[in-house]
Amino acid sequence: MGKGIRMNRTLFYAVLLSVLMFMGAQATDVSAFQGPGCGGECADCHTLKKKEAEKLLKTEKFGAEITDIKPSPVKGIWQVELTREDKKFTVYVDFGKKYLMESIRFTALEKLGEAQKLKKVDAGRIPLEHALVMGDPGAEKRIIVFDDPDCPYCAKLHKEIKKIVKERKDIVFYLKMYPLPIHPEAYDKSKTIVCEKSLKLLEDVYAGKKIPKPSCETTEVDDTIKLGRELGIRGTPAIILPDGRLLPGYVPAKVLLDFIDNQGR
Questions:
Q1: For residue 240, which of 35, 64, 140, 184 sits 20 to 30 Å off, Cα-Cα?
Q2: Are 237 and 37 spatial neighbours (Cβ–Cβ below 8 Å)?
Q3: Which DSSP state fits 43?
């Protein structure tokens, strides 16, 4: 092995060790294979700026330069390209900015069911009386989604749900309002939507429109927040499949249908 290669690997592992030590005290239970979404403890989980990455990776200390930051082939992970002198290397940082990973080929999100067994929850504990309904309530396959009206990934998933119910009459979605602490205006918006039981108001919020203040007193939103925490739901969107499997984060319609139609996988 040449001296240059040894130096490059030494640099990488030095960066890896220092960053892991720095992050270790803050680390929480995060799944690397989780679909992108809004997390209850992440103030800004949708971007990784160059200056922020430089601080996380301690590039100044090691004389390295970040040349590119982009989403990796695995959803929920940033791919960061670095150079030092004439050497190039790649590291990966999860969207929660808690973990640093070497250049390893991960299973794609579409293979999530094969990569790890999804957690199951007791869907029977979730009351649906005040949920918004998309699709035929009499449909055979029932999906429950915990939504935050200010979560951009919930808005993205909403469009995929509309595609599914248009094509599949055997699937119905029940949407529960689950505002996260990182979105301070989401609580009142959720109460307004629940008071009016209005799918249109939810779609107005997703479209960037303002909606009225709550017009009723209801404990529905607080009850959903309490139950969601008991079920271990930490972010949105959170998708509960017909067999109780909890699929966290946004997935496109094609992938979601694959999970729905392949129960117990």
A1: 184
A2: yes
A3: S
